[in-house]
Design a protein that fits this description.
single chain; alpha/beta; four-stranded antiparallel beta sheet; 14 helices; 10 strands
């Protein structure tokens, strides 16, 4: 343990938790563990109930245990979903395989099964959910041990209801996330996420803005930028971002540009046509799998132009300006 703490922390940020749990003062970055434990006073040793040698040995075992944890982000070359049954028990004809960079839209009436499908993907279903679907990673089902080890790491979810309850500013929140990812430039990563989020949100916010002061759209924009830049999860589930007041096209571009597999449940034709494929739900099952056609790509351009007009009108209203027609602006 001759390396100074600053090098240990760069590789194993969680090592600082050892001192917090023991009630010990945080060591200076330039100090080595040997020097730190040698300099501990008798009062600190009494509080821990350990000698210097015992604390040093405990810390060595702690580092060794951390080093054996598989902290590498999970990687997925393909994700497949095999059909189950609909709400009436009828077979679902589905054999879907996706690779990083794919975007799939989930469309259908409310209650048609979109959220259940997202839940099956999140839980890596293996014919053990109400639908009976199976989710395969790289062509194989995930056994119980792998499902447990991947829990919370494989899939990132952006739900339609998002509220922060932590009494924390945006900057420290993002820096804590960047630090947990062992990034070298924590402050730079946090600043990049805020800049990206402000590209998506209608109203900009700063790193010192409290999380609880963010609007729904700002919160969603922050989480999309965070997932795109800091989150290592290779699969992203997005539930109805069209109502968040953000730049939806830019959001999808950010997520797919980071090499993730993206599922988007939506009622928005613009988002649906941005996807390479869309799953049409009915009665709790996928009724159709449709590829976005060349004609729909052209329709997407027209929809994007209409959406730009609506976006300008919304911005005019927000800023207290008179809403102008397209003819008046030409």
């Amino acid at each position: 343990m001759a390396r100074p703490f600053k090098e240990i922390w760069r590789e194993l940020a969680a090592s600082r938790d050892f001192f917090a749990v023991q009630g010990l003062p945080a060591p200076a970055p330039e100090t080595t563990p040997e020097a730190y434990f040698a300099a501990l006073g008798e009062e600190a040793l009494t509080e821990t109930g350990c000698s210097r040698d015992e604390l040093s040995a405990h810390f060595a075992r702690f580092l060794d245990a951390l080093g054996r944890i598989d902290a590498a982000p999970p990687s997925v070359n393909s994700l497949s979903v095999r059909g189950g049954t609909d709400k009436r028990g009828r077979p679902e004809t589905l054999d879907l395989t996706l690779v990083p960079g794919d975007v799939v839209a989930l469309v259908g009436p409310t209650g048609s099964g979109k959220s259940r499908f997202l839940a099956d993907v999140e839980w890596l279903a293996d014919a053990d959910t109400p639908t009976g679907r199976r989710v395969l990673l790289d062509g194989a089902p995930a056994d119980a041990a792998r499902r447990l080890s991947l829990s919370g790491r494989l899939v990132a979810q952006l739900s339609q209801n998002m509220h922060f309850v932590m009494d924390m500013a945006v900057g420290p929140f993002l820096e804590a996330h960047a630090e947990s990812r062992l990034l070298a430039d924590v402050a730079g990563a946090a600043a990049e996420v805020v800049a990206l989020a402000n590209e998506l949100a209608g109203e900009p916010f700063a790193t010192d803005t409290p999380l609880t002061a963010l609007s729904g759209g700002q919160s969603r924009a922050l989480m999309i930028a965070d997932v795109a830049r800091l989150c290592a999860s290779p699969v992203v589930l997005v539930d109805e971002i069209e109502n968040a007041g953000i730049d939806r096209q830019r959001a999808i571009s950010l997520l797919t540009g980071s090499g993730k597999i993206v599922f988007v449940a939506t009622h928005d034709p613009l988002l649906a046509l941005l996807a390479t494929r869309r799953l049409v739900f009915s009665g709790g099952a996928v009724a159709h799998v449709l590829e976005t056609s060349p004609a729909e790509r052209q329709a997407l351009k027209e929809l994007a132009a209409l959406d730009a007009v609506l976006s300008r009108a919304r911005e005019d209203l927000r800023r207290g300006r008179t809403v102008a027609t397209q003819k008046e602006t030409n």
